[in-house]
Amino acid sequence: MKWIYILNDLVVGDAVMPAQDIADYKKKKKVWQYSSFAPNVRKIEKGDIALIYLAGKGKRCFYAVLQIQEQIKDTRGLPTQGKAWEAIFNKIFPLGSAISNVKVFATPIQFDEGLRNEVSFIGDKKNWGLYFRQAIRSLPEADYQKIIDRKNK
């Protein structure tokens, strides 16, 4: 199955962790973490593919693709390397799964009007941003291919 993992900047108090930094951190740790309240989190399975979408003003692009390597499990005990924000991160996102084959696109794929009009998962093209208000969205295979094909143009 194909998914879109939607990342926004994480704001905790006065600290801001940009969405791209979160994606890079997860790539380095080789673990994708989830909120227990994230929609569809229980449907994700080993072998699934996810596109990483950076949301928010100035981003709105597909940043990377990855593969899920194991079923989702409790990851609250992940080592934190002494960084306070890592402990907060582990508390906010207590579930996780190993990831592999993470490929950051040399040039992020902009979710521009042309691509929005091509994909079927956006039913209301005028209010397309509403479709990125969840942390995890299922993605039809045909739409996944249309997005990936944009990378090769």
Structure commentary:
- By secondary structure, the protein is α+β, with helices and mostly antiparallel strands.
- 24% of the residues lie in helices and 34% in strands.
- It is built from four helices and nine strands; from the N terminus they run βββαββββαβαβα.
- It has helices at 19-29, 84-92, 113-118, 141-151, and strands at residues 2-7, 10-12, 15-17, 31-34, 49-54, 61-68, 73-74, 95-110, 136-139.
- Strands 1, 4, 5, 6, 7, 8 and 9 form a seven-stranded mixed sheet that branches.
- The longest helix has 11 residues, at 19-29.
Short précis:
This protein is an alpha+beta fold and about 150 residues long.
Distance between the termini: 24 Å
| Rounded Rg | 15 Å
> How many beta-strand runs?
9
Average pLDDT rating: 90
- Strand and helix order: EEEHEEEEHEHEH
Number of helices: 4
Instruction: Tell me roughly what share of residues is in helical segments.
Output: 10-25%
Q: Briefly note the structural class of the backbone.
A: alpha+beta
Strand content: 25-35%
Low-pLDDT residue intervals, each spanning 5 or more residues = none
The backbone outline, from C-alpha atoms, is: globular
How is the main sheet built? 7 strands, mixed
Question: Could you list some keywords that capture this structure?
Answer:
single chain; 9 strands; 153 residues; globular
Give the secondary structure arrangement, pairings included.
Elements: E1 2-7, E2 10-12, E3 15-17, H1 19-29, E4 31-34, E5 49-54, E6 61-68, E7 73-74, H2 84-92, E8 95-110, H3 113-118, E9 136-139, H4 141-151
Parallel strand pairs: 1-5
Antiparallel strand pairs: 1-9, 2-3, 4-8, 5-6, 6-8, 7-8
